[in-house]
Structure formats: structure tokens, C-alpha cells
Amino acid sequence: xxxxxxxxxxxxxxxxxxxxxxxxxxxxxxxxxxxxxxxxxxxxxxxxxxxxxxxxxxxxxxxxxxxxxxxxxxxxxxxxxxxxxxxxxxxxxxxxxxxxxxxxxxxxxxxxxxxxxxxxxxxxxxxxxxxxxxxxxxxxxxxxxxxxxxxxxxxxxxxxxxxxxxxxxxxxxxxxxxxxxxxxxxxxxxxxxxxxxxxxxxxxxxxxxxxxxxxxxxxxxxxxxxxxxxxxxxxxxxxxxxxxxxxxxxxxxxxxxxxxxxxxxxxxxxxxxxxxxxxxxxxxxxxxxxxxxxxxxxxxxxxxxxxxxxxxxxx
Length: 315
Description:
With 315 residues, this protein is an alpha+beta fold. Helices cover 44% and strands 12% of the residues. The chain has 14 helices and six strands. The protein has helices at 8-22, 25-28, 44-51, 55-62, 71-80, 85-95, 113-121, 141-147, 165-171, 173-177, 182-199, 204-216, 218-225, 272-288; strands at 127-130, 136-140, 234-241, 245-255, 263-269, 293-294. Strands 3-4-5-1-2-6 form a six-stranded antiparallel beta sheet, sandwiched between helices. A hairpin with a 5-residue loop joins strand 1 (127-130) and strand 2 (136-140). It is elongated.
């Protein structure tokens, strides 16, 4: 029986098939690529030839019927499929999974005190502390005002009501509409979730999140099926903010040594117009309450009175 996509070997086969389909014969410099083809990417035999393995063995890998692929084979496949360094790491995670144990009770993520101290030190900047699944563990008041001003500021206090950026991005019309390039933002989030899914195969909450979004949003399901994997460390985002209009923000992600799965995302304006918009937003934010960061201090500050919608919670 072929393993399902929810098993380690099934995930490996799914990933190999997605990368094979994404690589065109022209990019791979395959001889005779101009002939009529029935598949969008490379054929199995072409990948096997490029990697220097037998077609039968590569087929077993894609079908989840082969175990213990050597490092040399994995590196050869990575070269043949032109994987990025992040995709290579993901391939190794899937091919060499940690032994699966009975799923433990998932403990709520807690922000480290040093990460909260860092947020407090930059409380005048838009910043957000993200957990493994892109749940908001804490944010500065301007970070909250930039990303989700319609949600309670202290919603990070309780893991049951903690904002989930993937849920907001795909299921909340206001957040979805606030990104000028929503598709790029969506691709980035899905690629991160897939990267984490290969690293933590026993994360039941992550599996539930992926299943929920796949059922509720066809675009998420399509992006997930594409198999894209990536780590995001910085870049530019453009917002259509409901309070201050359009603005551009550079962002940088800082990994946390004390909690490797947690990431601090800090924003700075890209130009003077965006800086002016952020100054206005900061003024509006401070009018609503004192500045600072929160991981659930009980101070709602300028939060909207409405409770967090259940579909935007982390569960």
C-alpha cells in the first residue's frame, strides 16, 4: 500500500512530485524537451537520469516505497531538481524524519521574557513576535495597529484567542484586503508552513491548521498542493491600511536563540510618505492607550471592543 501524504514517506513523495512538476525541461537542459509532452515538468526517467539513479528506485521514492536514501542520493536529487538550500533542508527533513512517537499533548507556546524585553525596548516601532505556526505571541501597539487594528490588542494573552496570521490572511476579509500584494504574502505564509511541517511531523495543531485552511479557502489548498518551501528573513510589504491609506514597509525577521521556533518581525517605513503614515498611525494608537508590547498583560489599551472571531483563533 502506498503511504499517504500524511506519513513521512508520503510527504517525501509528494514533495518530489511537486518539485519535478515545477522544473521545466528547458531549465533542466533536457535533450529533446521540445517534443510533445503530457506532463508540465520533467518525467520521472529524466529526473532519474539527471540524478544518476535508476528509474525504478526513483519511482519507489516518489511512491513512498523506498527508505533510507543516502546523503549522496539526496544531494544528487537536489541538484537534478535544482532545489534551493531551504528546499534541500526540507528534503532531508522528510527523508530522515525523527522517530514518530504517540502525539504528545501540544503545549501552548509562550514568549521568552528576553523576547518580550526586546519588544518593550522597540515599543515605538511596529513589531510582532511570531510562534512556530505564525501565531502572534506578542506585539507592540503599532505592530498591532499595522497588522490587525480591528482585533483586541491583548488577544495574545490566551492561546485559545491568540491571533493566527495564516487564518487572518486567508479568512479575514479586512486583513486580506490590507495587503497590496496579497498573493505574494499568501505564498510566503504557505511556504513557511510547509517548511515547518517537514520539521515537526507530529505537530497536530499544525496539521489541523493546514486541514482547516485547505477546506475553507481554495487558494490555500492550491498553494499547499504546489509544494513550495521557503524561509523568509526580510523584504518589503505594501499595505492598504484602513486608517492611514497606502504605505510601504521593510521588514526584517530575527530568530530567537532562546526559542528557535519564534521569530521577531520588525517593520520600518520604505519612504517619507510611509513614515508620515506611520507617524499618524502611531498618534492614533497612542490616543487609544499607552504604548508598549503585550503578550497578554490584561491591558486592552486601544483594542477594538469586539472579541476575536473564532475562525481567526489558533484553537
